[in-house]
Amino acid sequence: EGLFPGLSVLQNIAIASLSQFSNKLGLLDSTSVLLNVEKQIENLSVDAASSEQSVNNLSGGSQQKIIIARWLLVNCNILLFDEPNRGIDAQSKQAIYDLINKLACSGKSIVVVSSEPNELLNICDRIAVLSDGRVSEIFHQDNWSPEAITAAAFKHYAS
User: Would you tell me how many other CB atoms lie within 10 Å of the CB of residue 64?
Assistant: First the structure.
């Protein structure tokens, strides 16, 4: 949902960070943009023929990586992943999990929103469960299970 259909990989990745590649007059250093975008493509192993390829022609996993690359280029310290693996194949899912772990290990704060308890159990160190718009329970690795998480999600609806 965060892609700009019809635009290239380069345009989709660079669009949020163009100001960091512009001088005081607003002129864009296109060489620097290209180098930085290609570095993101390589680091995330995006399966694209070139940075000029349309994002419409990429797999779902590569499209997810393009959106992640956009925000990594901005150099955000907090990243929100909302259903990061919806609609992608198992191999791409593992690549996204590995990337989330790598980002967390590098000092980035990661917030993952997911309706799949097992996904959260695999990548989180804490899980806050919302029920009826409120935090119903916070789990740490030593006291969580898919059943406990699901029960907490429906806690406020039970009464």
Answer: 26
Q: Which amino acid is at 54?
A: S
| Number of H-type helices and E-type strands within the chain | 6, 4
The dihedral of CA 9, 90, 88, 111: what is its sign? Answer: negative
pLDDT tens-digit profile of 44-77?
888 899 999 999 999 888 888 899 899 999 988 9
Give the C-alpha separation, 128 to 78, whole Å: 17
Cα–Cα distance measured from residue 13 to residue 132, given in angstroms and rounded to the nearest whole number: 36
Neighbours of 127 (CB within 10 A): 20
Q: Which amino acid is at 142?
A: D
Write phi, then psi, for 146 (nearest 5 degrees): -60, -40
Q: What is the dihedral of CA 120, 121, 122, 125, to 10 degrees?
A: 90
Q: Is 140 buried (19+), middle (13-18) or exposed (0-12) by CB count in 10 A?
A: exposed
Tell me the whole-structure pTM to 2 decimals. 0.78
Tokens of 28: 């864009």
